[in-house]
Amino acid sequence: MSFRIPRRGGLSVSASLLRKPALQPQISRTFFTSSNTSAKAVRYSTITRNALVASIGISAAGGLGWSMRPETQLCDNGKLSPEESDAIQKRENGVTESSPMRLRMEAMIRQKQKEIVEALEKIDGEKFIVDAWARESGGGGVSCVLQDGNVFEKAGVNISIVYGTLPPAAVQSMRAHHKSFDPNDDKVNFFAAGLSMVLHPKNPMAPTVHLNYRYFETMNEDGSTKSWWFGGGTDLTPSYLFDEDAIHFHRTLKEACDRHDPEYYPRFKKWCDDYFYVKHRHESRGIGGIFFDDLEDKDPEQLLSFVTDCLGSFIPGYLPILEKRKDLPFTQDEKNWQQLRRGRYVEFNLVHDRGTKFGLNTPHARIESILMSLPLTARWQYMHEPEKGTREHRMVDVLKNPREWVQTSA
Amino acid sequence: MSFRIPRRGGLSVSASLLRKPALQPQISRTFFTSSNTSAKAVRYSTITRNALVASIGISAAGGLGWSMRPETQLCDNGKLSPEESDAIQKRENGVTESSPMRLRMEAMIRQKQKEIVEALEKIDGEKFIVDAWARESGGGGVSCVLQDGNVFEKAGVNISIVYGTLPPAAVQSMRAHHKSFDPNDDKVNFFAAGLSMVLHPKNPMAPTVHLNYRYFETMNEDGSTKSWWFGGGTDLTPSYLFDEDAIHFHRTLKEACDRHDPEYYPRFKKWCDDYFYVKHRHESRGIGGIFFDDLEDKDPEQLLSFVTDCLGSFIPGYLPILEKRKDLPFTQDEKNWQQLRRGRYVEFNLVHDRGTKFGLNTPHARIESILMSLPLTARWQYMHEPEKGTREHRMVDVLKNPREWVQTSA
Known about the structure:
The structure is a homodimer of 410-residue chains.
Chain A: E1 2-3, H1 15-19, H2 24-31, H3 49-56, H4 82-93, H5 101-124, E2 129-134, E3 140-147, E4 152-166, H6 168-175, E5 188-201, E6 208-219, E7 225-237, H7 243-258, H8 264-275, E8 277-278, E9 283-284, E10 288-295, H9 300-312, H10 314-325, H11 332-352, H12 354-360, H13 367-370, E11 377-379, H14 391-400
Parallel strand pairs in A: 1-2
Antiparallel strand pairs in A: 2-3, 3-4, 4-5, 5-6, 6-7, 7-10, 8-9
């Protein structure tokens, strides 16, 4: 990982930000342990809370569809805000198994981002550009992007951590899914943390992969947890279908799911097929994977463990496929087909994806983190229809009729 | 213009369609006068009314945002439908100055499509692919597309003509703008005809251009006109700004407007800047032009003449610019910048354009006609920001701060 020097005319380091203690310790302790943490080398920008939420919601923000009110760092009653007390707790005790779930999720996604970025740099040979960004009242995110590398056309691995308050409309809409919401609350403190990733390899035989895992909670004034849930998913979008890859990818996800609940994989596989359906093309974006939201059906410890396992399954589930496909020979026609499929990817993300739509409609969102999911290049060709019997035709057939790639007992 | 032979597995000629007299005469009389009208050579497809409306609304469908109910060719009372009687009138009398506005608008856009396509073929050297499509109950459209030509990366010139009935919700929403709507009507016959065009030249120095002109009316049972209005606009999207081109383009539009109403240009120029604003990027899609909707402030004859004049101003307004820029030398960096601007074009069309959004959400819409507006290729590069003092930076500056390109007295 290499840090990016702020460019002339770009976003610049804010001195007041760097003086704030809230963000610095968590960055140096967890994420940037082995890296150069010199303030000059880290690119910061001042953003709003909305931008943080928007960047979490790169795909399937789900319940994150609200706009937020300004907040102050101290609560109305003069006590420390949940964010401030979390920052102190991290600084004084680090993050342990007895820390609040907020801090454990944050530490987990920072760790996973680091592992994933390191693994991807190893396979590509090029380094990610790292943009660590913060907002005035604390909290922040880290966008890691590798563009036009040896293996990847574009690879983005983002995390963001948000503290804020929900307006009444958002509380109202969330109450439907979460009965623990207090109907008398008009101001709800919330926390959201997520890791989002999209990888577009150059070789048309190597599939695009996307994942997004997030934790959401609302808090009492004293920082104790009120409501909480997990959401996320991992899905694969090949231009050329290798059945063995699809089977390996789904099997790895199924194994991660099965370790926690035998009903998860079939349920979340279907949810994924439903979510990533490109209605106007009558086809799926890819060959699916898993997807879930509002997950609160087990003990939070168990679900953190499940989500950690899902994230952990990414490297064994995807990298062997990438290794096998990244250097396969291909023709210009095959590259064109990949570019056309990239176009469909753009269509899904810009037209249908709830997280992207929400982000783009959020004032002052960090657009570059949201649209990091788009490929470097894409193509739209009028009336392109693959000939029957070709590999391209079979790919489309599978997108129109999602398959079961691994046997389930359900 | 060359006709496309239906491909194996593609959309095929429907024998029952070709037996219907309603569409054939209008095609051979007006649009395809000098062309081979052999049924075998024309590519037809059976589509729904929604698809026709959707394809009209390639940009800024405006009031066209409803879904429609099935209709029969004969009215409930057994009389001929407006469409059927229009078809008979065309067949027996042709289209004259005393014909209903529906037929005159249709004849006008067919003629303009022909003129524009011929002019563009002359400048490119390659021929357009022509897809004439019809739906079972009559009416239809013609999509002309030139892809990967000598001058054009992608050029699409579409017309469509629709007859249908409006559901109550649409009537309700239109009543706000058009007081002539009868509040007691629960079923309203309507007609819509439009020409839409998007040209993406290859050379990054040559600007993309878009236009869309349409006529909408509702009819009494006997086919006489109840409410009606015109809408449309023409706008330019350069990657590199040549002030003289912007001035020439706007001046030509202003002259067309001024011949009809001195207040039109300033009013429609501002409307255009407002409509083509890419909110999430805080910039305009291009350097504007004119845009208007629900126009019914003059005699329909005068407005048909205005819209005809706007369409007529396209060739003198755009082709001289294209001639000057299409063969200019350019670097790979300049081509990349064009591709990035293409990406922004895609963002506007897929995220913000009302017509595209409506079309994509319309079941059974002819997606290829709607997305004909997208460029052949586009690019998204993380955190690309042009350096101050460069031509790219100036372009963005103008997109963020729309200019007045010609003096107006208003």
